[in-house]
Amino acid sequence: MAAPKKGRSASAQSRPGRALVLILIAIAALTGGMFASGHTTPRLGIDLAGGTSITLTAKNEPGQPNAINKTNMDTAVDIMNRRVNGLGVSEAEVQTQGSDNIIVNIPKGTNSKQAREQVGTTAKLYFRPVLTTEVSGADKSATPSPSTSSSSKATDKATASPSSSSSSSVTPSATATSQGRAVTDALKADSSPSAGSSASSSPTPTPSGSVDPATAKLQATYTALDCSNKADRATAGDGAKPADPTVACGQNGSGQWQKYVLGPAEVAGTDIKKAGAVFDTQSAAGWKVTMDFTSGGSKKFAAITGKLAQQQPPQNQFAIVLDGEVVSDPSVAQSLSGSAEISGSFTQTEAQDLANMLKYGALPLSFKESSVTTVTAALGGEQLHAGLIAGAIGLALVILYLVIYYRGLSAIAIASLLVSAVLTYVLMALLGPAIGFALNLPAVCGAIVAIGITADSFIVFFERIRDEIREGRTLRPAVERAWPRARRTILVSDFVSFLAAAVLFIVTVGKVQGFAFTLGLTTVLDVVVVFFFTKPLMTLLARKKFFASGHPWSGLDPKRLGAKPPLRRTRRASAPVDTKEA
Could you tell me the pTM of the whole model? Predict the structure, then answer.
């Protein structure tokens, strides 16, 4: 039984080159990916590279005079921080200033326009039934035929509804009177009892046939609304409550602006459980945003789609309204529940941003951008220079200690440190565009601390080998016997370091998370380097005469280590046998 075990052990010892080839291939692949992506340097945090500082001022909402308070401001800060700093390592900073201002600092290298949209968008989402719609303003003359929204669609998890959605349109010769009559008729139809309708959602016309003031105001607003005008689009539907009908603007599949009269909100963004951006490979829709509803939201969605499926165009459509703008107006052919999607001419970034805003929720307040300024990195640059000098001094002292105490073994330690440094640099460069990681001063400190953690692993291994040599063993058996004991110690030590980094990352915010993330990353890399580089390299060099013979400069000289003479087994002399007695 011992023979196979010895064979396996010999085979394992004779192939350390495989592990070395594996890690070298990994380094080459990561380095190639870094150059191919064009991100050859790590992204720097705002304290090292400067960036953009945005001041947002909260606005009072109609009918909500006390909306600007500490609770809502803190909630807004939390949501904004999750939008621009989802993993906690992008180094974007969000904090309150005074009672109604929020300061957002975005590092250089981040798409500032995209980040400004992320933090400034309220992301209030509603699903509203379409009462009437038409091409608006200057776009009327572009296409006299009825407009369509063929890019919009709604889907159920099990069954997809037809994706085309026709919208009624008024011809260019339509008068204001006919528009007003259309609004009145639509409101009358919407106020009639049906399954899933809201009890007190729409204004009811008076018995005499005259129009009540709320409907008359809505008629006038809709008639005057020109969605091709940016100013009109910005104010469309301002002050409308979710339970009231309103007007809104949106672009159809042809890129034309349409104006809408929308019924009361039937489903809100708070009814969305999760949202994500996916690429539709089954059609030409491209990127789209999928949404899964909560249990209550699914019931509401089933009720409104069941009601709309019984209507004629355009009242069989519902509008997905984000911050007062219609982003999609799909038609409904059957009752749906569970999930929905928003599709259109989205780029990947636009789809991910919209999903991100829906996922983290709507801001409790609306904000206006008060100022945008550029932040310099003069102070951070000086601190980085001082930190790098401190790191270089620390690394030089570690190398000097290794050379003096371990002599030839220090070459293995230095090579391992270089491999760890290359992996750390490449991964930091790749993590910038991948997860938004930005290197700040605390993260630099974490990388410097990691030098000691990595060197400690080498020292543990080397000392175990020396202990075996002191027991009288030659180098090759000493390496293989020392490794299991050193491995356990290294894993326990690195596990404790990683656990500390993970706890620190979870319980802290801001720049400290950068320190914790870097410390955890370098701890994991320490395990990889020791297992796939240091140990195989040591096994290979143990076969070389310089180390195997215990050269005085190898660091493994048995005389210097006080090795015991090798143990030799002697056979006991057997007692003479009396032949006569035998």
Answer: 0.60
